[in-house]
Fold this protein.
Amino acid sequence: MSKAKAGVLLGALVCSPFVVGIQTASGQAVPGGTLDPTTIPKYVTPLVIPPVLFDDGGAPMNVEVSLRQINQQVLPAGYPATPLWAYGDPANPATYNNPGFTIEVTKDTMTQIRWINELVADPANCNLPKAKSKPTGQKPQCDFLPHVIQDQNGVPVVDQTLHWANPAQDCLDGAPRPDCRGASDQPYWGPVPMVMHVHGAHVGPGSDGYPEAWWLPAANNIPEGYATNGTFFESANGADTNKALGRGYAIDMYPNDQPTTTLWYHDHALGMTRLNVYAAGAGFWLIRDETDGETGLVSGVLPGPAPRAGDSAAALNTPGDAVRSAIREIPIAIQPKSFNEDGSQYYPADRAFFEGLGTGGIFADNTDLNIPFLPQVTSDIAGVWNPEAFFNTMVVNGTTWPQLDVAQERYRLRFVNASDSRFMNLAMFVVNADGSLGAELPFYQVGSEQGLLPAVVRIETGFATTLPGDGSDVGSGVTPVPGTFAEQALLLGPAERPDVIVDFSGLADGTVVRIINTGPDAPFGGFPDVPADPDTTGQVMQFVVNAGLNNPNGDPSTHAASLVLDPNPGGVAKLGAPSAIQDLALLEEESALICVTFDAVTGAIDQDTGSVPPLCDPVLGSVPFGPKAAVLGVAGSEGGEVQLWDDPILQNPALGAIEEWELWNWSADAHPIHLHLVKFEVVNRQVIGGAVRPPEPWEAGWKDTAIMYPGEITRVKALFDIPGLYVWHCHILSHEDNEMMVPYCVGTPGIDCPAELF
């Protein structure tokens, strides 16, 4: 069942001649379009506070959410609007926004959502049931839209040479099926698949957003022979009764049986998640316990209020409005992007941008080096897909470098790193009158991906201090304890979601505070690292203290240092001994098909074209040459055995089993690993061959995504309590889309799990 391996060169980043690049201290170019990010004004746009799209009010909820293409003012006023995708309520067109508005649900209350793919020309006037009775071409408003992410020439950058959600069923192996490695390396102009994943949800397999359970819009011009849904769509959603047009939707059920926490929803279509998330952003999914308050909070009051259903977008986002002025809990989605001068989002069109593969680029002086791309049988290099995607403009809640006026009070910020590849290391500093950075303000982290922590952790650059958590009024008089790395502050891998409190109460009216990012503009391998460009990606957003926003009755919240959290939130320490241990591997694979020779004197590189496919012969000086594929596998004596998407399932926990997964990172980079279905505890970390160390203080609660550092073993433990088919993967989305994701299944093969996958 194994397929040809596709890969990636995790090497130097280069700037193609047709784009604007900015140079970091390392000399690497940050990818960008024709709009130079240094020309974009900062801190001129008010931060968007996402309204609540739906709130269940403590009763079961049955709603619709669709995906549409809109134009949104992402760049500051005066710049062109940006075509992108947005989630919203089809009954209320004003709700479509990128990122999507927040969905709030009550713990243990069922939510049913009909997720609709409305990527058609005019969804508001496309009556889908009526369209099904119309001859093809009679209702142009129901024609599908091509992918909104396009290159500088207006050509979609969907890479058909990956293993992807392939509606055309044009497969490299010649067997037509809807999920395969494509035979064409030409641009894909067809209808776009989607499948929704509520990241971190404890949910049955049919509602998890399995990457092969995608579906197309119910368009009237679907080309003949196209599949309207993925391989596992019908097993999750029942038969699609209209194969010609497609159903256009899926219905998912969410029990929300989790501690109150910060989840988020985003697309998960096979082989194009990176593009769909970049185009559509994401939305917050917040679980609250309306009966007992925040689950895990023993005593104290967290900052609030948060936006609630009924708060209009206008009220929440008009500076000076009473509703906006009162808000003290704000979701913060950070998703770097790059732009062209016409306002469109930029995404690299081919690997040459990053790697110079083919003529030109970093190998321009080696005119004989012209590496072929898939689907040529002599290559396993995908043509459009790139190893990572680091963009040059910081976008927060859908606008570039925003600003928020804040009261002299405490605020609760619920972050998500929605980046494709970028790790962020965030710190807050007062900005002096001359523009320099002054005193640092700490973050007080109270929660992570799956709920509140056992204790509050004070975080500032170089320090991570677990606070007593006994309710004593220590105020700000806490002596920081040195952290693991002197450079580390609030570290966010892609998809991680710290829940923090920031305290502006001691600052004078008019004080400016800025969130700084020192995470690298390149693959993260741990500290120390070259920080982000200080003029662009090194800045995130800004706050301005405004005493006029103060609550006249005083701040009702408890100082973070005096909060008492549950020392065992959700039973994190009660899983017990594991019944099985899985030894897993994070790997980098050299290309199996491309070999090169090096000049022993000059180091010049040339392609070995002596055989088809070339056979690497070290005796003759022929060695494997990128791409280095970031892949998953099982640990072995030589660093691990590769496991690819189409390989037989190797991770098969028994229903109800507690398993410990040991993740051996043999690669050169850190990877944020996400396990669907389960929440897990980080048991410990260990440098390979070295001593075991405990998890970091902010990892002491439940998580669903955790950073795996290079050269280390990270051990996590989870209860696998729902049978069925799920995935685990790297949340660097460019890695996920090219083999750093594999299925796993809970339960008995042939009963709970498809027998053909084993």
Observations:
- The domain at 580-591+626-757 is CATH 2.60.40.420 (Immunoglobulin-like).
